[in-house]
């Protein structure tokens, strides 16, 4: 017979992914009793179907790409990857889709965990339906934080439910490489999975509705990634979309895809990497005056603006401020501090770069695309600067001219760009494309968030020979232009 009980906490967090865990960690550390509610695996999307497994698939691919161009290693890198070993490593990095380790950490941090589907039922109230059919009613003295994340958004294609398409989840957890894989989408998921599965033995066709890959980044980044994908054997097509698709063959083991140009492709699997949707459809938003399925708008304190009383927070992907795990964890640290301050009756310290304000969401969002070559960016692009009316100076440099780059890879080809605010004379945007550039990103992020004057950057001396010397070359290029 179903059991119903009621528990009261200071803070209720719905969603035990990296974002929810960080909110709970901060509020617990502040002395507030906190409970996490999770309907799937503790650890969330990032741990099992996104960041961790995707990078486990990509690491050997990128390492081989670099080593294959280094004298002494190049001949040893000509053979295929050991796909079975790569997939086994991916499985280990995803903890074989078991959350025992995450649950152990949650308990060790003094946080309670309730498994089941959580829904708001009113102000500071949550009802949790457990897998056993029981109901747990939770009440919060101070705050409820919605950290439910996002899920893959499928296009409105007729009959798409019968296709059994891959989303990012299937693409990162598949236990074999399909012989032929069609990928629809030119963003991060599309290009990373094209890079991984092409190297793991699939014949990849990548379809981009836009005129280039990675359309939200500087154009040169997508151009370099396109070049390498095509060299690796992928079929990359632009300005094209899918108008129809169906399962065919014996037992529906093939997908026939009809394209907007009249062409037809037959593949074993099709991956739709066409965006994200908020996981907010069935979490009781209607009980507090919000629309189910909507993104949740917040202010810089991560408080949901449409709900009075400063008790409801939306943190991570579900607020659409910046759809990155690391950015969600940043928001979680701020939200935890805000909840704790309000619980103690303290006045919030808000404003640009203040402790209770998630300023980085709008001014310094870092991101890495783990393709060959890598792409790393933070802050504004030229297009965004033009759209927002920022007067910026654009400085470019070919990374391959650096001694450190040639040491990294003799045929190194890459590009760096920084944007400098003409009035303030600080860096407001940076993009790097080339092997190993992910490790340049934090320095750029510090320069932007620290509002370091360009003249001060002359005194930040990069070691020789490293790729970080690109910072000096960018300054010299600007000086000599």
UniProtKB/TrEMBL annotation:
Leader sequence range is none
Return the similarity comment. Answer: Belongs to the class-I pyridine nucleotide-disulfide oxidoreductase family.
Q: Ranges for the FAD/NAD(P)-binding domain?
A: 9-322
How is this protein named in the record? NAD(P)/FAD-dependent oxidoreductase
**Start and end residues of each Pyridine nucleotide-disulphide oxidoreductase dimerisation domain:** 365-471
The coiled-coil regions, if any, are: none
PANTHER family given in the database record: DIHYDROLIPOYL DEHYDROGENASE, MITOCHONDRIAL, DISULFIDE OXIDOREDUCTASE
> Known InterPro entries for this protein?
Class-I_Pyr_Nuc-Dis_Oxidored, FAD/NAD-binding_dom, Pyr_nuc-diS_OxRdtase, Pyr_nucl-diS_OxRdtase_dimer
What this protein needs as a cofactor is:
FAD
Per its UniProt entry, which superkingdom is the organism in? Answer: Bacteria
């Amino acid at each position: 017979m179903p059991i119903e009980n009621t528990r009261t906490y200071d803070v209720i967090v719905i969603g035990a992914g990296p974002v929810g865990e960080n909110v709970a960690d901060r509020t617990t550390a502040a002395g507030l009793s906190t409970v996490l509610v999770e309907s799937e695996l503790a650890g969330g999307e990032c741990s099992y179907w996104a960041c961790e497994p995707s990078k486990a698939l990509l690491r050997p691919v990128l390492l081989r790409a670099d080593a294959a161009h280094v004298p002494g290693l190049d001949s040893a890198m000509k053979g295929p990857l050991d796909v079975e070993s790569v997939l086994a490593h991916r499985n280990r990095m995803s903890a074989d889709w078991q959350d025992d380790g995450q649950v152990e950490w949650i308990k060790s941090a003094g946080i309670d965990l309730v498994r089941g589907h959580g829904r708001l039922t009113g102000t500071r109230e949550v009802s949790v339906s457990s897998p056993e059919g029981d109901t747990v009613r939770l009440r919060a003295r101070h705050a409820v934080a919605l950290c439910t994340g996002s899920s893959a958004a499928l296009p409105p294609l007729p009959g798409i439910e019968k296709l059994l398409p891959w989303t990012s989840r299937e693409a990162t957890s598949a236990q074999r490489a399909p012989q032929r894989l069609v990928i629809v989408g030119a963003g991060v998921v599309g290009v990373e999975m094209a890079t991984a599965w092409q190297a793991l033995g699939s014949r990849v066709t990548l379809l981009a509705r836009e005129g280039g890959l990675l359309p939200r980044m500087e154009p040169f980044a997508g151009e370099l990634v396109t070049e390498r994908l095509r060299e690796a054997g992928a079929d990359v097509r632009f300005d094209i979309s899918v108008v129809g698709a169906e399962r065919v063959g014996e037992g529906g083991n093939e997908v026939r895809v009809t394209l907007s140009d009249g062409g037809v492709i037959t593949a074993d699997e099709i991956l739709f990497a066409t965006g994200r949707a908020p996981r907010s459809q069935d979490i009781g938003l209607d009980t507090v005056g919000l629309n189910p399925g909507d993104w949740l708008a917040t202010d810089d304190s991560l408080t949901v603006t449409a709900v009075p009383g400063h008790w409801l927070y939306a943190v991570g992907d579900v607020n659409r401020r910046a759809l990155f795990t690391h950015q969600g964890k940043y928001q979680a640290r701020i939200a935890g501090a805000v909840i704790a301050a309000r619980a103690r009756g303290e006045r919030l310290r808000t404003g640009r770069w203040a402790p209770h304000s998630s300023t980085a969401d709008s001014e310094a969002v870092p991101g890495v695309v783990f393709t060959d070559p890598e792409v790393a960016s933070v802050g504004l692009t030229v297009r965004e600067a033009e759209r927002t009316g920022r007067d910026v100076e654009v400085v470019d440099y070919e990374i391959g001219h650096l001694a450190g780059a040639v040491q990294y890879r003799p045929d190194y080809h890459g590009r760096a760009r920084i944007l400098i605010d003409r009035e303030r004379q600080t860096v407001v945007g940076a993009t790097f494309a080339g092997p190993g550039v992910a490790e340049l990103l934090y320095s750029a992020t510090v320069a932007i968030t620290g509002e370091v004057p360009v003249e001060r950057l002359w005194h930040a001396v990069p070691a020789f020979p490293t790729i970080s010397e690109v910072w000096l070359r960018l300054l010299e290029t600007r000086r000599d232009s």
